[in-house]
Structures are given as C-alpha cells and as structure tokens.
Amino acid sequence: MKWDIKDIKTWSPEKHLPGSTIPESGNTRYYNTGSWRTDRPLRDTEKCTQCLACYFYCPDCSVLVEDQKVVAFDYGHCKGCGICAAECPADAITMHPETDFRGRE
Ligand code: SF4
Ligand code: SF4
Q: What is the pTM of this model?
C-alpha cells in the first residue's frame, strides 16, 4: 500500500501511528540510518575470497556488490552490527570504533 502523504507536514500527532510512519516500501534510501553506528566494518581485500557470505548475511543490505563481487560497504545504512565480520569464513572483515575515523572524512 502506498499512502497519500502530500500533506504529511500538516499531520497532527494523532494521525501518525505509534512509533513512526512508513508511507511506502524502500524509503530507507531517504534516511541515513548508519549515523548511529558505533563500530565500522572494514574488509581486507587481500583476505577476501569473494564468497559473498557477508552480502547474504547483512540484515541491512549494506554490503555492496557489483558484477558478483563485494566492492564496498554502504556506510550510510550499515548499523555496525558485526554480523558480516562474524560470518566471514576468511576473517577478512574487522570491526573498528567509529571514533577512529572522526575528523578523517
Ligand atoms: S564474507 Fe568475507 S570472504 Fe566472503 S565476500 Fe565477504 S569479506 Fe569476502
Ligand atoms: S556491520 Fe552489520 S549492517 Fe554493517 S555491513 Fe556488516 S552485517 Fe551489514
């Protein structure tokens, strides 16, 4: 179902359901949900065997694949859960505190 949200900015709190309003599927592209990540995955391209396990296990579709190969993480949406690092059979992914990157981007 797709809602008519043309006037959403005028909605009162009563019109929003408890929690939040998700007016259509696929709307995470509008939100930088990776902004509250505390740890960031990094992939060692030398160790990576391109098995794609990280891609299949990531609950946020944040492992980016092109031509059937992992090419990057989508840090705009990766929440830093570490599942990719835990499941990587080659130990190619390590988690690092976001504070290590502060001021370097
Ligand atoms: S799970 Fe590990 S070895 Fe497999 S593609 Fe991802 S990083 Fe590479
Ligand atoms: S840390 Fe979690 S959300 Fe981020 S890429 Fe790995 S599995 Fe996906």
A: 0.80
Residue of 46, 50, 38 lying closest to 78 (CA atoms)? 38
Distances (CA, A) of 72 to 7, 24, 53, 65, 66: 37, 27, 14, 7, 9
Query: Is it the case that residue 1 has pLDDT exceeding 70?
Result: no
pLDDT at position 84 is: 98
Instruction: Name the closest ligand to CA 89.
Output: 1
Q: Are 52 and 11 in contact (CB under 8 A)?
A: no
**What is the mean pLDDT of the segment spanning 14-26?**
71
Phi, psi of 42 (to 5 degrees): -125, 140
Identify the residue whose C-alpha is closest to ligand 1 atom 6: 54
